[in-house]
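fold description:
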Amino acid sequence: MKYRFLLLLMIGLALLTACGTTTASTSTTSTPANITVARLKSMLDQNETFFLLDVRTPAEFVQDGRIAQATLIPLQELEQRLSELPTDKTIVCICRSGNRSSVACNLLKERGYQAINVTGGMNEWKAAGYPTVFGQ
């Protein structure tokens, strides 16, 4: 029983580490500001001013569904495409689960942008039953 508890504890810690909001590829250890999908939905419904950035791959964006107002710039292209982002609006970043968007937020913050991460990403958005667009 004691060993089972230790094994479960070690597995839990490993999962927490693997699902954390920072990765070795980022040069910062700060955690970005986060919002829930419910808060994002409220912001969209109230026509708040912000830029919604989806950092998934083009295939995910089309096949897995997207939020209608989102602009796609895949994470691997983000640094080269910063000129496409507004400097006068908060950038709300979303991906599949919240990990890549967290990395994107850290990169944007390092470059002087105000960025917020959507925790749970599109997985949570779709699970909540919020509107999702499929295809081009």
User: Anything to note?
Assistant: The chain has one domain: 30-127.
